[in-house]
Design goal:
This protein has four helices and 23 strands. With 359 residues, the protein is mainly β. It has three domains: 104 residues, Immunoglobulin-like, CATH 2.60.40.1940; 102 residues, Immunoglobulin-like (Sandwich); 135 residues, Pnp Oxidase, Chain A.
């Protein structure tokens, strides 16, 4: 019979099934291999369907399967998973046999330290999982997890009361559910903590810690700079995350193409070439991971207007030097081929919206 050389996991990230060794345990000399990916939304993609011949030692290896699985995930809701089905068909001693294996593959564009089976029980699918992240008070934050157990998502928050004293309060926010088939998304924005946990209206949220089983993540509230820009992107697990830039510079350098017409030189083509360069706030350990995933993101967009952006450059040099505040810089362009004109907004008190009948 023909079978995978190693036991296939029930849950996996793409890199775990990137290479598939198959061995022959009988007289078969070849095997027909069919690999399909079911996106759980009714679409089934055939990644591979070929006949392969075994080496003299009765083995063969298929490689580079992970990129194909990642491409399938790009076509549908990233908050789900892909069912990878491997069908082997071989003939030995005049008898044709088949064997089928299934693996649930969750999105992950990079290699993790542990396999999915272990990772999903100990970490959120967030870049800063296990660390802390600085966020403004009006941030919109979510945590993502694959949970096989019926576990609560709990929070421990620190508030400062109007008299300057601090107090800590803990509560259960959500039940993660027992279904491991889908990625759970839970709103853990500062506004949720304030609405559910704050004792008095004047109390100020300082920080909070989110936990679910052995997973945890901390958020620290920081001041918001004037002109701050927020970029949302898909992280390595294809989940939406946000990163904040304290300073953004706009550089306009059109590309001009000119020629002479009727003895006069003219610009016959002017291509817009506007680049934005942003500098982050000082980065915590969790923010460092967040920035690293941002500069490797396949898709990102501005939160303010939803415009998709393409990254053109990035600079980040982490160091273990004591007392150094690290920041990252990135440059991007809007994906539109043309500049977007935004007319100035009138903010005068007595503009056309003023109600002259008001007394």
């Amino acid at each position: 019979m023909a079978k995978p050389k190693n036991t296939l996991p029930t849950y996996a990230f793409p890199w775990e099934v990137d290479t598939l060794p198959i061995v022959a345990e009988g007289s078969e000399t070849s095997v027909n291999v069919t690999i399909t990916a079911d996106d759980c939304n009714g679409e089934v993609y055939t990644l591979l369907s070929e006949q392969f011949f075994f080496d003299s030692d009765g083995s063969l290896v298929m490689a580079d399967l992970a990129p194909m699985l990642e491409d399938v995930r790009n076509e549908y809701d990233p908050e789900s998973y892909t069912v990878m089905t491997i069908t082997l068909e071989w003939t030995a001693d005049g008898t044709t046999s088949t064997a089928t294996y299934e693996v649930k593959v969750f999105g992950c564009s990079q290699r993790t330290k542990t396999a999915c089976e272990s990772f999903r029980k100990s970490s959120f699918l967030n870049a800063a999982s296990g660390n802390y992240k600085y966020v403004p008070i009006d941030a919109k934050e979510y945590i993502y997890l694959i949970s096989p157990e019926d576990q609560d998502v709990t929070v421990t928050a620190v508030f400062r009361s109007s008299d300057g004293s601090a107090y800590t309060i803990s509560d259960s926010l959500y039940n993660s559910g027992a279904d491991a088939s889908f990625v759970g998304a839970f709103d853990v924005s500062p506004s949720v903590m304030i609405a559910d946990l704050r004792r008095e209206d004047d109390d100020e949220l300082i920080s909070y810690k989110i936990e679910c089983g052995s997973r945890y993540m901390r958020y620290v509230i920081r001041d918001k700079a004037y002109g701050e820009q927020c970029i949302e992107f898909y992280n390595m697990f294809w989940q939406k995350e946000r990163i904040y830039f304290s300073e953004v510079e706009r550089s306009v350098k059109p590309d001009y193409s000119s020629a002479s017409f009727n003895a006069q030189k003219r610009n016959y083509l002017i291509k817009p070439n506007t680049t934005f360069s942003g500098t982050t706030y000082p980065l915590s350990e969790g923010d460092e991971q967040l920035f690293d995933q941002f500069v490797h993101a396949r898709k990102a967009w501005r939160v303010s207007d939803g415009a998709q952006i393409i990254l053109t450059d990035a600079d980040f040099k982490p160091t273990n030097g004591a007392g150094e505040l690290l920041t990252g810089t990135a440059s991007w362009q809007v994906a539109y081929n043309q500049n977007v004109f935004t007319p100035p907004t009138q903010v005068d008190i007595f503009d056309e919206t003023f109600d002259e009948t008001y007394n």
